[in-house]
Specification:
- This protein has about 240 residues and is mainly alpha-helical.
- It folds into two domains: about 150 residues, Ribonuclease iii, N-terminal Endonuclease Domain, Chain A (Orthogonal Bundle); about 70 residues, Double Stranded RNA Binding Domain.
- The protein has twelve helices and three strands, in the order αααααααααααβββα.
- A hairpin with a 2-residue loop joins strand 2 and strand 3.
- Helix 4 crosses helix 5, helix 4 crosses helix 9 and helix 11 runs parallel beside helix 12.
């Protein structure tokens, strides 16, 4: 007798308290709360091929574009005398994972996410990549439900501190300038290890130059490269 494979039941939906808290944090009362619930659904609670359709990944895609547009508009307004290069550095700093994760943590977004029990035990709510993705998803849901104006209002409230801060130099560019300026060649990056679940991996990256090596971890490979570059530059400057 052939036994049918049982399908996994639907993932636990964010409760009323989580939805209300998210609306408070975003400053918007949703007409379509299903959008907000999807934004709070981490991909780890979904199973099978449709995981990316039911989780917050599609809304993250929208939110990333909305954030870039709103911040670019804001920068043009606030810094009318700056050239494209300087504006680009500011934009890169504001939309980078560390900034997004800090904003998400400040508004308490991690505690509102619907995550799989195993991921919850692994501390996925506190991972910068997960927080950054959730914030972009929430912004995408906000835009789709209410349009550009509420999305713009939330971004300008939540990112005011990041906008006012001086944009830091890109660590990879700074390291390359330092090594090339001393005839040491280009730094070389490589992924040492990839750990964690497939939907939320952690990358350990090593960078080497001038006989020295530094390593760093992050939920996004580019972020790990930047952290490793900053560590190696500090090491090289200290020994110079």
């Amino acid at each position: 007798m052939t036994r049918r494979r049982q399908r996994a039941g639907p993932p636990p939906a964010p409760g009323e308290a989580a939805l209300a808290a998210a609306e408070e944090a975003l400053g918007h009362r949703f007409r379509d709360r299903a959008l907000l619930a999807q934004a709070l659904s981490h991909s780890g609670v979904m199973q099978g091929r449709d995981r990316g359709l039911a989780s917050n990944e599609r809304l993250e895609f929208v939110g990333d574009r909305v954030l870039g547009l709103v911040v670019a508009e804001w920068l043009i307004e606030r810094f009318p005398e700056e050239r494209e290069g300087a504006l680009g550095r500011r934009l890169g700093h504001i939309v980078a994972e560390p900034t997004l994760a800090a904003v998400a943590a400040r508004i308490g977004l991690g505690a509102l996410l619907s995550v799989a029990p195993s991921d919850d035990r692994a501390g996925v709510r506190a991972r910068p990549a997960v927080l950054a993705d959730a914030l972009e998803a929430a912004l995408g849901a906000l835009y789709l439900d209410g349009g550009l104006e509420p999305a713009r209002g939330f971004v300008r409230r939540a990112f005011a501190e990041a906008l006012a801060a001086e944009a830091p130099r890109d660590p990879k560019s700074a390291l390359q300038e330092w090594t090339l300026g001393r005839g040491l060649g280009l730094p070389e990056y490589r992924v040492v290890a990839t750990t964690g679940p497939s939907h939320a991996p952690t990358f350990r990256v090593a960078v080497a130059c001038a006989g020295r090596t530094a390593e760093a971890e992050a939920g996004v490979k580019q972020a790990a490269e930047k952290a490793a570059a900053a560590a190696l530059l500090a090491m090289l400057e200290k020994g110079a």
